[in-house]
Design brief:
Two copies of one chain form a homodimer.
Chain A: E1 5-9, H1 14-25, E2 29-36, H2 42-55, E3 58-63, H3 98-113, E4 117-119, H4 135-148, H5 150-153, E5 159-161, H6 169-178, H7 204-216
Parallel strand pairs in A: 1-2, 1-4, 2-3, 4-5
Helix pairs in contact in A: 1-6, 6-7
Chain lengths: 225, 225
């Protein structure tokens, strides 16, 4: 019987590097998928490439035209990334329907590769402000996917797996360290400084990440500017 | 109060030209969205542009990287488009997760534009073999979208509307003719001949379309080769 297969949505950040390690540890043959959605994230894509290479998996990059839609600080250059502010409600870094688009590509690739699962690194603790990170969203996506796909019709649905769903950043770091993840390869910062991608240390992503390492009692390998 | 807005997914075919006319007739300010998903569909995109111009709406084309995934006769050049065969089960022209990806872009654009609805031209009569054309699929997509979006969280969900859902091709043609749709602008053929896009007359899409005009008692404006 061939190994079970998984598409792993890989952003190059801490969370997705951890789900890749989890998927591998569970015996999945992994196929990494990243998204090129505008000029801001080329350093992220380099990080994703490093993480996939270190894990010995293949890596595809899908170009998606979200930048043309505007609407978020992560895809437009004229909206400032917020620094050192407490999130309240839905943050401006929210990208409309982002996880829905990402999962849909993951679902398509899983059908093409006849893979059994799509892994996504969302969690509902750190990103409580994002509607499309909530457990009820992931469950609704699964229900939709079961009806959307050939495999679903055949009774072999593609599972949407979000193993970080209920974990905070410190728990994610501890889990990843236990699985041998080299977090120095990853990039979480929303506003990294080219060309090396030095982290700003001040955006939400940097703050969650730094606090995660601190609470996990693990040295932070992030290179700050 | 501003007009209600809609994103209309426009393929350049008969069905999507009809939903654009329906959306306009219902008072929606329409924003058309088409997808460039590989070399095969440039003639479709030209048709979509003609239809949008004739309706006086704006028109965006999102480039999506589906071609790199392979897996369907509509995105790969090395799988023959079936001709003159009765469909049985899921046809080879099925594109993995296609409507899921299309609706996800529609949902994202609707959030950016603060539009109230996304119109999609699926119907479950002619395309009974496609899992992602069934009413239960559209309902599940709506349930997911309600949880995925800022508007959903705010209690102003973006509606996923598939007004052709229960109609056969003849009924769609009759409806469109009544709304003044110029079907000579549209292209349905899976295998059109460049540069004019002359229809083959033999693929599933051509056969459904031709039969639709015949049963509706309307002259078929399609240019066959």
């Amino acid at each position: 019987m061939p190994a079970k297969g998984a598409v792993v949505l890989l952003s190059g950040g801490l969370d997705s590097a951890t789900i890749l390690a989890i998927a591998k540890s569970e015996g999945y043959a992994c196929h990494c998928l990243s998204f090129d959605y505008g000029q801001r994230n080329s350093l992220e894509l380099e990080a994703a490439g490093r993480v996939a290479r270190a894990a010995g998996t293949d890596h595809r990059i899908a170009s998606i035209g979200l930048g043309a839609f505007g609407g978020s600080a992560l895809t437009r250059n004229d909206i400032a990334v917020p620094k050192d502010v407490e999130p309240e409600g839905i943050p401006p870094t929210y990208v409309p329907a982002r996880n829905t688009i990402f999962l849909s590509y993951g679902l398509a690739l899983a059908e093409v590769l006849d893979a059994d699962a799509v892994f996504i690194g969302v969690n509902s603790i750190d990103y409580s402000g994002y509607p499309d990170c909530r457990p009820e969203y992931v469950a609704a996506y699964q229900a939709m996917a079961d009806l959307a796909t050939r495999r679903g019709v055949e009774g072999r649905p593609i599972r949407i797996l979000a193993p970080l769903q209920k974990l905070d950043k410190a728990a994610i770091v501890r889990l990843g360290i236990g699985l041998g993840v080299d977090y120095s390869l990853t990039l979480s910062c929303y506003d990294p400084l080219p060309p090396e991608g030095l982290a700003c240390g001040a955006c939400d992503a940097c703050r969650f990440r730094r606090e995660g390492f601190r609470l996990a009692g693990v040295p932070d390998p992030t290179r700050y500017r």
